[in-house]
Amino acid sequence: MVSDSTLHALLGAVVTIVLSFVPFSPVLGGGVAAYLNEADGNEGLRLGALSGAIATVPLVLFGLVVVSFLGFFALGIDGGVAMGIGGLVAVLVVGLITVVYTVGLSALGGYLGSYLVDPN
Description:
Elements: H1 4-18, H2 25-37, H3 41-74, H4 80-117
Helix pairs in contact: 1-2, 1-3, 2-3, 2-4, 3-4
Organism: Haloplanus litoreus
Keywords: Membrane, Transmembrane, Transmembrane helix
InterPro entries: DUF5518
C-alpha cells in the first residue's frame, strides 16, 4: 500500500506536470504536496523534493525519445556520429539543469506549503 506522503508527492508531481506551461510550476507542485500532507518545515522540504524527483521522470523519458530520434537522423549526415554524441552531451547537460531546477523549486514549494499549514 502507498503511504500518504508518497501519494501526496505523486499528486504534487502531477500538478507540476499539468501546470508545466506556467513558470515555476514545481513550486506549486511541491507546495500542494506539503499542504495536503500537513507537513512541518523539514518534512515539507523532503516531500517537495520527492515530488520534484517524481516529476522529472517524464521529462527524462521525453529527452531520451528526442535524442533517439535525432540520433537516427544524424546517422545519415556526414559527421553524424559526432553530431549524435554532441546531441547526447547537450541533452545530458540540459537534463541535469532541469533536474536541479525541478527538484530545487519543488523543495522550496514544499517548505512554503508547510508554512501555509502551520505559520509558527
